[in-house]
Design goal:
Structural class of chain B: alpha+beta
Mean pLDDT of chain A: 86
Largest sheet of chain B: 5 strands, mixed
Oligomer: heterodimer
CATH class of the largest domain in chain B: Mainly Beta
Number of strands of chain B: 9
Shape of chain A: elongated
Shape of chain B: elongated
Structural class of chain A: mainly alpha
Largest sheet of chain A: none
Strand content of chain B: 35-45%
Number of helices of chain B: 5
CATH superfamily of the largest domain in chain B: Immunoglobulins
Number of helices of chain A: 8
Radius of gyration of chain A: 21 Å
CATH architecture of the largest domain in chain B: Sandwich
Largest interface: A-B, 60 and 57 residues
Order of helices and strands of chain B: HHHEHEEEEEEHEE
Low-confidence stretches of chain A: 100-109
Radius of gyration of chain B: 21 Å
Helix content of chain B: 25-40%
């Protein structure tokens, strides 16, 4: 196992294993950061800080249960994200006060054909479109959307899931089915 | 998406609910613990995150034609999207045009749209063909208006013409026109 190999090697000798551990878990830490910090740069900071701690602790034998490395990485992510959130909130307040808001907009995820997403979004049924706009742009929760459209929150969650599936199927084509 | 559950039995719907913040703390922590054990779900969540970012980008870029709410309109405005709004009264034509600085055009259609099983919005040339038809549009509760957003770049391509926005409602088997709203589209303007 990767974590075992790193823990049992001399410090810095398990370079390939450390790289593989990063490859497997860095995307998850980044997602955790995006979910909790809502900012791509802060999420990337989180990835770096978490892996500094994880690799150091593995090398020094400071992790008691290397089999549960995922759990340790998650715990470390929670602790560091909590610190970063406070820093990020201060930074956001400064940005809102002094900077052009348009510049603060997050980057586009690079892996999709944006023109195709635009076309697919515009081809969805009107309710699906509005639901996705409210969810992913206005960042409204199911309970907010439910009261906006006089629906049950559960029905919104089901409809939202169906709308996202339709969008993805359109964007990815038959290969996603 | 590919299937509703991962090979370890976690539900895809839970990942979406997690991503948009619709799970309580305990549920969210349970999903997070699963994500750090299950590479399949981690990839699925990445997929959701990518799609969510692309939707937000499409809206922010004023490239989505949609029924929206005032909350969306306010956020667009805060994001620097330049919005031109028209509010034609039922049964009248008002002049409209698209200016170079416009990103998005919003029509506020007022009327009593409540109590229908289904609402349909049609855009058509005054004496010509339908340009678009949106069946089963959502109605925001407690309001007496429909906000429809259209990309300015799309409208810029239309020649000068009289346009009608027609909202109809269906009750059971009966369909009736609720309101017709006229726009004297002057085409793309320059300053």
């Amino acid at each position: 196992m990767l974590a075992n190999a790193i823990a049992s090697a001399a410090p810095g000798e398990a370079h390939a294993e450390e790289t593989e551990l990063y490859r497997r878990f860095a995307p998850r830490v980044r997602l955790y950061g995006l979910r909790h910090l809502r900012d791509a740069a802060a999420a990337q900071d989180l990835v770096q800080e978490v892996f500094i701690v994880v690799i150091e602790r593995l090398r020094s034998g400071g992790i008691r249960s290397v089999e549960a490395i995922g759990s340790f990485i998650l715990g470390t992510s929670r602790t560091i994200a909590s610190d970063l959130r406070r820093t990020h909130q201060r930074r956001e307040r400064l940005t809102e006060t002094f900077a052009d808001r348009a510049i603060a907009v997050g980057p586009i995820e690079p892996t999709l054909d944006q023109a195709r997403v635009d076309d697919c979004l515009n081809s969805l049924p009107p309710r699906d479109r509005t639901l996705l706009v409210l969810t992913f742009y206005a960042e409204k929760k199911a309970s907010d959307i439910a009261s906006t459209f006089e629906m049950a929150a559960g029905a919104v969650r089901v409809a939202r899931h169906r709308a996202l599936t339709r969008l993805r199927d359109c964007v990815m084509g038959e290969s996603s089915r | 998406m590919t299937s509703e559950q991962c090979s370890r039995g976690a539900w895809l719907g839970d990942l979406l609910d997690y991503w948009v913040g619709d799970l309580d703390r305990d549920e969210a922590e349970r999903v997070e613990a699963h994500l750090f054990e299950c590479s399949e779900c981690a990839e699925r969540l990445a997929d959701i995150a990518t799609m969510a970012a692309a939707v937000a980008e499409a809206v922010r870029g004023a490239r989505v034609q949609s029924i929206i709410s005032d909350a969306v309109l306010n956020k667009l405005s805060r994001d620097g999207v330049r919005i031109r709004t028209y509010a034609p009264e039922p049964g009248t034509f008002i002049p409209c045009a698209i200016w170079p600085e416009d990103d998005l055009v919003v029509s506020r259609l007022r009327g009593d749209f409540s109590g229908y099983d289904e609402l349909t919005l049609v855009l058509k040339a005054d004496e010509g063909p339908e340009l678009s038809r949106n069946v089963d549009i959502p109605l925001i509760s407690g309001t007496r208006e429909i906000l429809t957003a259209t990309s300015a770049s799309r409208l810029r391509r239309l020649p000068s013409m009289r346009l009608r926005l027609i909202v109809s409602g269906r009750r059971g088997e009966t369909e009736q026109v609720i309101g017709e709203y006229g726009l004297e589209h002057g085409g793309a303007m320059s300053r």
